[in-house]
Design a protein that fits this description.
By secondary structure, the chain is an alpha/beta fold. It contains 12 helices and 16 strands. Helix 1 packs across helix 11. The structure holds nicotinamide-adenine-dinucleotide.
Length: about 350
Amino acid sequence: MIHVGVNGYGTIGKRVADAVAAQPDMRLIGVAKTRPNFEAEAAVRKGYPLYAAIPERADQFRDAGIDLAGEVEDMVMTADVVVDTTPSGVGAANRDLYERYDTPAILQGGEDADAADVSFNARANFDGTAAADVDVARVVSCNTTGLSRLLAPLVEEYGVEKARVTLVRRGGDPGQTSRGPINDILPDPVTVPSHHGPDVNTIIPDVDIDTLGVKVPATLMHLHSVNVTLEAEPTADEVRDLLDAESRLFLVPEKTGIDGTGKLKEFAMDTGRPRGDLWENCIWEESISTEGSDLYLFQSIHQESDVIPENIDAIRALLDREDRETSMATTDETLGVGLESLFDGQRQRVVPKRNGDD
Ligand code: NAD
């Protein structure tokens, strides 16, 4: 069993903790929190040992009637690996703590690439990470994860001459009441390219990609408008079949009537997904179009959850416990990744719509 500690129990941390607890080869030894808020109480209800992330605040937990298993250093000392899900910048600062106890660690996408020894995406570089003798890996951000999952099979099957992606990004997560914009559309960053393209290159070094970012008043998901110039001229059907074969890419069938991120999230909740999570890239099947070597599509990324299966695979890769296929299959099966099976036999090929003959 791999003993896993989770440091930082917010949006990503609570999901990683649940995912670790569901793995047959992992044991969640505890989670570290800064404050005795509603998430701390939820962790206690689930039976997760709770550690004080900031020792000076341990009294606050006692005053709130919450029992602590110890301080964060106790957790780090006991763990085989720590998944650090603290806010951007804190993970890099925590590296000293993990090194002090010789505990391998996984950081998140809010950290700069150089805060870790290697950047990670299961589909694109599991094997490279497992082969590297390193102690700290970084699971790349939600957007970079979504782009890497999409580009890896395209690079392998056709070769990619150039990728151009506009990322329409949610202003904040549903619980982030201080984020915005509230009523605006921001080029963000206004400079081109955005950091996402270079970040993809930490995973797939040779792919030529430019990204542009826009921020909108939405909380549910991101939406990517994608144009990839391939080194081949496949039909749209061939690309659909290629993407359909990837377990973490969900092709949203036309007949579902899902026309946007609102209905995608509603659909996730109707299927009983925990927290309405969508671990897969959601690619609108009808949007997959080709014009010669140019591929176009729209995909949506659930920022709060697409990195969760990646964190689980990163644990096995960092400790070199499994090969890619076995790890991804175990993760997918235990979490329930793969919405395709809901539509087996119902999928119909979509005829691209034209604007008539005129
Ligand atoms: P969050 O604010 O929801 O959660 C972070 C948690 O860490 C909070 O509970 C906070 O109290 C706690 N914390 C703060 N300082 C700490 C410390 N010193 N020690 C331990 N815990 C501490 O943040 P999040 O959205 O879960 O983001 C975590 C990381 O994941 C960031 O690097 C972020 O960029 C990345 N990420 C976030 C998203 C997303 O959309 N939310 C998606 C992908 C990656």
